Amino acid sequence: MKVGKLDTDLLRKIVFRHITCQREEVMVRPGVGEDCAVVDFGDYACVLSTDPITGTASEVGRLAVHISCNDVASNGVEPLGLMLTIMAPEGTTADEIEEVMRQAGEESKKLNVEIIGGHTEITSAVNRIIVSATAIGRQIKNRVVATCGAQVGDLVLMTKTAGLEGTAIIAHENTGVLTGYMGADMVERAKYMMNMISVVPEGIIGGALGTSSMHDITEGGLLGAAWELCEAAGVGIEIHLNHVPIAVETEKICGYYHLDPLRLISSGCMLMTIPEEKGSELLRALEEKGIQGTVIGRITNEGRYLIDGEEKVEIAPPESDELYKVV
User: Fold this and answer.
1) Cα–Cα distance between 39 and 32 in angstroms, integer?
2) Nearest of 62, 99, 92, 94 to residue 268 by alpha carbon
């Protein structure tokens, strides 16, 4: 199989079909595009998400915090707790483990998320440090936002710029090569994007303003997230290429490595759908918090298309992320 998360057909065929026990307390179950489980806890719902960091080594502690907290925020929920499992190869030093925890501690403090448990192990089963994180949040039941909630006619917005996380990872992993190509200043700006990978603020804003659905843009990039959101909701979408914001640093790095920025991992970017009459309010709320928001398309009743001028290109299901061509 290809490197990266399993494609949707395999998920359905060899994973989902074996999950046969269902409890009445579970409000949201595993499904394409649904990154969180939601469990009924009386007046409140408990929202949980888990993810590993496998695509980079240098910023693994920082990314581990954000990847799971971002998923919880996609349900309009503030994350409150985090559990970390660290699997490190033989020969790993105490300083390297401490650096992972230093990064995780700094980032969790910024988000006001407590690291409430986990596991740390040296094992020959891995060849570099792997961190898996589980985030937990709590929300009033009727305010939980699910990916499957997108409605025909909704505006489609995204925050920040496509390929954000991938740009930062590649810049960190290939600083020397890229400095000779695009200059030290641009490489440093690309690396700085690592500080922009939280979508917790926009998730909380979206939950408060009544977005119909949200999906953080991770493996598979913008187009992969759009396809998953539509698959979860059973709707179509039209995204206008000339409306999609792409940073010049991302364009340069993608040009050098021949990558598609719309298929590049983009943690830090949130895909949001909202009724048209609420769109301006959402954009204003994002702007007030210093978050770039852009309307890039609309939810339709059928078909999933990227529109480039007069050309309509069908959006395919996500495959291996563009990042894996480089790292």
Assistant:
1) 18
2) 62
Give the pair of three-digit tokens for residue 88: 């490190």
Strands 79-88 vs 114-122: parallel, antiparallel or unpaired: parallel
Strand 155-159 versus strand 79-88 pairing type: unpaired
pLDDT digits (tens, 9 = 90+) for 243-291: 999 999 999 999 999 999 999 999 999 999 999 999 999 999 999 999 9
SS3 260: coil
| 70 class by beta-carbon count within 10 Å (0-12 exposed, 13-18 middle, 19+ buried) | buried
Region of residue 98 (left: phi > 0; alpha: psi -120 to 50; beta: else) = alpha
Q: Helices 184-192 and 248-257 sit at what angle, rounded to 10 degrees?
A: 110
Rounded to whole angstroms, the Cα distance separating 26 from 69 reads 20
- Cβ neighbours for 112, distance < 8 A, ≥ 6 positions apart: 78, 80
Convert the pLDDT of each residue in 286-308 to its tens digit. Answer: 999 999 999 999 999 999 999 99
**Phi, psi (deg, nearest 5) at residue 245:** -75, 130
- Whose tokens are 């401490």? That residue is 98
Region of 303 (left: φ > 0; alpha: ψ -120 to 50; beta: rest) is left
Determine the Cα–Cα distance for residues 303 and 280; give it in Å rounded to an integer.
26
**Kind and range of the H or E element at 108?**
helix 94-111
DSSP 273-294: EE-GGGHHHHHHHHHHTT--EE
